[in-house]
Each structure stands twice: as C-alpha cells, then as structure tokens.
Amino acid sequence: MSTNSSRVGQLLLQASACISWKQDVEGAVYHLANCLLLLGFMGGSGVYGCFYFFGFLSAGYLCCVLWGWFSACGLDIVLWSFLLAVVCLLQLARLVYRLHEDTLAEEFDLLYKTLCLPLQVPLQTYKEIVHCCEEQVLTLATEQTYAVEGETPINRLSLLLSGRVRVSQDGQFLHYIFPYQFMDSPEWESLQPSEEGVFQVTLTAETSCSYISWPRKSLHLLLTKERYISCLFSALLGYDISEKLYTLNDKLFAKFGLRFDIRLPSLYHVLGPTAADPGPESEKGDEEVCEPAASPLQATPTSLQQTPPSSPPPAATNFPAPPSWARLSRPDSGILGEDSTSLVLEDFEEVSGSESFMDYRSDGEYMR
C-alpha cells in the first residue's frame, strides 16, 4: 500500500508543469458552456426539476462539443462532451414519456385536484382507484333515473362529477346530490360484501349528469388488498353520509324552527313539503305511521267521540277531554310554536322509545 502511494506521488511530482500560460482567453462558446452547466447544477428535485437539470446540462455539453471542435481542436473533448450531451437528451426523452404516460383524462384530473390532492393522495394510488372503474365516465340525461326504489340492486358505488341528482322516497323529496358527492354511499355502507339488497330511494337526474361507477365486487377486492385505499374510502364515505344526514336535519330546521336528533327512527316521516296542504288520505297515512300504541289516556277521547250526541254524558264524567297530541298533523306554515314544538318533541321521544313501533333493517330502511 505504501509502495503504491509513493509511485503516485512520484508521478505527480515528475509531471511537467505549465511552462507558460496562454495569454488569450477561450472563446465565448467555452464560457457559455460553463454558464449553462452552472445553471443546470442549480436545478431542484421532482419531475420539473429534472427537466430543468437535464435541459441545461444538454445545452452546456453541446456548447462544449462546439468549443472542442472549433477552438480546442481536441478529439477527446469532442467525444466526451458529445457522449454526456446524448445521455442528458435521453433522460429528457424518458421524462417526456413518463409525463405522457401519467396524463389523465380531463374529468379524472379535475377529480384528483378537487377530492384527492387536498388529502395528499399519491398519484399512483389514485391511478389504481381510477383503473378499478375502468376509466369510464357515464352520463345521465335529464329526468333519467339512476336507481328506482325497491327495484334497482345495490351492485356498484358511484360518484357524481357534474350535474345535480334528486333523491326521493315514496314520491317525497329528500335532498339533492351535487358534484363530487357519492350517489349511493348509504346503500354501500348498509350492506356487507356478501349481502345483497335494493335501493330504498329513487335517484333522478335533474340536469345532464356525468359520473363514474365502481363495480361492487371489484372495489371490494381493491379495498381488501390495499389498506390505504380502504381507509381513504372509509373517510370519504363517512363524510359524505354525514353531509347527507345534516342536509336532512337542515330541512327540518327550516320547517320546524329547531334541530332534531338525526338518530330518531321516525325522522323521515316529518320530511313532507311545507307548502303543500296534506289531504285527508295523507293525514290518515301520517296518523297510521306516527301514532304509537294507544294508551288508556288516548283511548278516552275515542270512546267519547263514539257516544251519540243525543244522550248527554253523566255529570260525574263531564270533564274536558285530554288533547290527543299523538295524532298531530304537520303544520301548514312550516314553523311550529313553542307549545306544538314541545308536543312534537314528546311525540318523537315516545316513538323512539317504543320498541314495538319500528324495526331497523340492514339495508337502511325503517319498517314496521
């Protein structure tokens, strides 16, 4: 080891030093090449940083080729500079190919910037999600139904890209679905992967709509394989369902002037139109749905109504009849006073506390 180091030292010491320095400076091409190389080495990271880096290096080494050919007249300078310039140009071509390969359709690119980029979702992960829906954008014409209540099976998950969709149940408006909201998130969460079910609401396009759709089985396989994507969909679906629930609660607030507990089982049955005057049949239907099991106190007015008016009641029983608050109809004005508000709240409490009133099914519908 010491022998080798001594030989290297002798070569360096015995090398001929510069006898005289050139009085003339190199030409402008040589200085331009060095300036371009200096700017190139100041480049940053990332795709566009690599474009900057290899772009300036390619221009700098090409200037070195010109300097070696016309000024230095050295074959080795020309060959090495040309080789380095070719390597940099190949790197630029590779970057262009990668950018072209990573380019998404306009709809999917806008979806990524709106929904996934704020959550810092990697682009490669987003491509796996898009690949699961086969990169297809589906459309709905005006007044075309996406799902029909009680008929359409729950076999996919869809996300609205543009337009507006109306959600209704039994012909009664519930809420709207706007762009970048899931169209069937409650139905998706209400079923296990091995279960089957049908929609309990009707979804109708109010305008021309476009959406993407994931097949249920393919998406479940992707969520099972990729834990990060599973957590991402859980967060997005949970937020979407909570927004829909708060939309229904805001509708009740606009109607009654107070906010109800969104967990009440009979909440849907008070979501009627505030301006329309319910007819006798609708009032009868509301009474059948909203009236709990009759208590002895509520049975008293019924017996009093069945007594003929010709026979006066005994004096001992001539007391004012208790109000039948359990059969209150919805107000026409859409805003309740303090007394009627307290009665409706008591009605909700009694209905929600009744175990025999409703049963909650796994597909998200309350049934008797």
List the helices and strands and how they pair.
Layout: H1 2-14, H2 28-40, H3 46-72, H4 75-102, H5 106-116, H6 123-132, E1 138-140, E2 145-147, E3 156-162, E4 165-169, E5 172-177, H7 185-190, E6 202-205, E7 209-215, H8 216-225, H9 227-256, H10 280-290, H11 296-306, H12 338-353, E8 359-360, E9 366-367
Antiparallel strand pairs: 1-7, 2-6, 3-7, 4-5, 4-6, 8-9
Helix pairs in contact: 2-3, 3-4, 8-9
Region (Disordered): 275-341
Biased composition (Pro residues): 309-323
Protein name: Popeye domain cAMP effector 2
String of helices and strands: HHHHHHEEEEEHEEHHHHHEE
Biggest sheet: strands side by side, in what order?
A: 2-6-4-5
Number of strands: 9
- For CATH, the homologous superfamily of the domain at 123-256 is named as Jelly Rolls
Query: Which bin fits the share of residues in helices?
Result: 40-55%
Proportion of beta-strand residues? 5-15%
Poorly predicted tracts of residues: 263-368
Shape: elongated
Q: What's the gyration radius in Å?
A: 38 Å
Membrane topology: Multi-pass membrane protein
GO molecular function, one term: cAMP binding
Main location: membrane
Keywords: Membrane, Transmembrane, Transmembrane helix
